[in-house]
Design brief:
Blueprint lengths: L2 H9 L7 E3 L7 E2 L5 E11 L10 H18 L3 E11 L4 H17 L4 E8 L3 E11 L14 E5 L4 H10 L6 H12 L5 H6 L6 E4 L4 H12 L2 E5 L7 H4 L3 H10 L6 E5 L12 E8 L3 E5 L19
Parallel strand pairs: 4-5, 9-12
Antiparallel strand pairs: 1-2, 3-6, 4-6, 7-10, 7-11, 8-10, 9-11
Helix pairs in contact: 2-3, 4-5, 4-9
The structure holds adenosine-5'-diphosphate and magnesium ion.
């Protein structure tokens, strides 16, 4: 199968609403919504770095788009479309069919059509760029947190890191426990509805991709504030809660790959109910720095850092 047959077969569909021209010409042509601003983000997935060769292609298709949509969610954007740049070692039709199935399924439920891309031969590598919109002035940024705001997180933290430790062989879980945390690692659901509902409510937001400490740290740095974080309040699955305390702490604070939203909001403000659990995990303080405390309010020494590709 040649390059253009491959694109037609797996990645081309009739243009969606709001797309004048999709896959098949030199550029996609999108219809902007009056008064809206574009929000654009890219994420690359490299085999061995961001995913294991053991992942099912359908789940990889899902995750490649999910991590990108998570950035739109963090900014409160409504998805409008995405491009897919793909390097493939060879044309494996079964692999491509699975990958495309996972990709299209999430694209469809997120109303985010595939509008173009690039396909080349090379080591397996996926790069998606997402395009979203938000009303002018309403995008959620990292820079709006103020002393006294409460810190909230959606869903649960730490399961993806626990799954990674099982793959690394440092932790053993029973079959059901492993499937729970593996699904968290391989099939994160971007919190798009929550992000959009937080427009005008949250003062700052970010998605947890590299670990809570680092990602919350980005909000603190951008906002020029500090925070107190309640370790015992961090929401976790029963599987993670059954692990030793130091492993729980690592997964919760520095796990990464969670794709939950962390946001700040003024105390007492009414939070939206979009069917996703929200947990209050701390408070913004004027004093710079991130102080992790236990249920008694005592400081927790953790020595943890979030993931950094170039950290030595
Ligand atoms: P060009 O040579 O003009 O850059 P290509 O030959 O690379 O275009 O691609 C042909 C068409 O197919 C373009 O519309 C491009 O956006 C689209 N395309 C290429 N690869 C992909 C892909 N992996 N997913 C979706 N669309 C793709
Ligand atoms: Mg061209």
């Amino acid at each position: 199968m040649g390059e253009f047959d491959l694109i037609r077969r797996f990645f081309q569909r009739p243009a969606a609403a709001g797309v004048d021209v999709g896959v098949g010409d030199d550029c996609a042509v999108l219809v902007p919504t009056p008064g809206a601003r574009w929000l654009v983000s890219s994420d690359m997935l490299v085999e061995g770095r961001h995913f294991l060769s053991t992942v099912a292609p359908e789940r990889l298709g899902h995750k490649a788009l999910a991590v990108n949509l998570s950035d739109l969610a963090a900014c409160g954007a409504t998805p409008r479309g995405f491009t897919l740049a793909l390097a493939l070692p060879r044309v494996d039709e079964a692999w491509l069919a699975g990958f495309a199935r996972g990709l299209w399924a999430l694209a469809d439920v997120s109303a985010c059509p595939l509008i173009g891309g690039d396909t080349t031969q090379g080591p397996l590598n996926l790069c998606i760029t997402v395009f979203g919109e938000a009303p002018a002035g309403q995008a959620l940024l990292r820079s709006g947190a103020r002393a006294g705001d409460e810190i909230w997180v959606s869903g649960r933290l730490g399961d993806a890191r626990l799954a990674l430790e099982v793959f690394r062989g440092t932790v053993a879980l029973d079959g059901a426990g492993f499937e729970t945390v593996r699904a968290a690692m391989e099939c994160p659901m971007p919190r798009l509805a929550l992000g959009q509902a937080l427009r005008g409510v949250a003062t700052a937001a970010i998605d947890v991709s590299d670990g809570l400490l680092g990602d919350l740290g980005h909000i603190l740095a951008a906002s020029g504030v500090g925070a107190r974080l309640d370790l015992d309040a961090l929401p976790r699955s029963a599987v993670l809660a059954a692990q030793p305390a130091d492993l729980q702490r690592t997964c919760l604070l520095a796990g990464g790959d969670d794709y939950e939203l962390v946001f700040t909001a003024p105390r007492g403000v009414r939070l939206p109910d979009v069917g996703v659990a929200l947990t209050r995990i701390g408070v913004i303080e004027a004093e710079p720095g991130l102080r992790v405390v236990d249920v008694r309010g005592d400081a927790v020494e953790h020595g943890l850092k979030s993931f950094d590709h170039f950290a030595s």
